[in-house]
Amino acid sequence: MNAKKENWFKKHPVWTGVIGIFILFILIGIFSGGDNNNSTSYTKSTSDTKTIVEKMTALEQMEIAFVGGYSYDEIKESIDSVMQQYELSMTNENYSRFGSVLVTLR
């Protein structure tokens, strides 16, 4: 009964490698440091911006999105004439669809 026990690490080299990599990732995470305050404020400002844009009508969003400095009235006038030709109702939903088509065609 005096049998010498074999080293577990030599007996299981694959598991040893997996455990070693896992420990390496833990150590990198611990010592990488960093300040989480910046990421929190960035997330907060991004979510604030998102809600502001979501509150805008489709035409107001188009005014920001289109290159060339077109005014709200210029965009609305151009889109209204096309919508009248196709007998579409002038709702925010249809303006949004029209803007999506223009972005896709651009």
What does this structure look like?
The protein is 75% helix and 0% strand. It has helices at 8-11, 13-31, 36-55, 58-65, 72-85, 92-105. The model has no long low-confidence stretch (mean pLDDT 77). The protein has 106 residues and is mostly helical. It has 6 helices and no strands.
Keywords:
single chain, 6 helices, 0% strand
Report the count of strand segments: 0
Query: Average pLDDT across residues?
Result: 77
**How would the global form be characterised?**
rod-shaped
Oligomer: single chain
Q: Return Rg in Å.
A: 30 Å
**Helix/strand class:** mainly alpha
Hey, roughly how much beta strand do the residues contain? under 5%
Helix count from the secondary structure assignment: 6
Give helix and strand order, one letter per element, not per position: HHHHHH
The stretches of 5 or more residues where confidence is low (pLDDT under 50) are none
* N-to-C span: 82 Å
Largest beta-sheet characterization: none
Helix content: over 70%
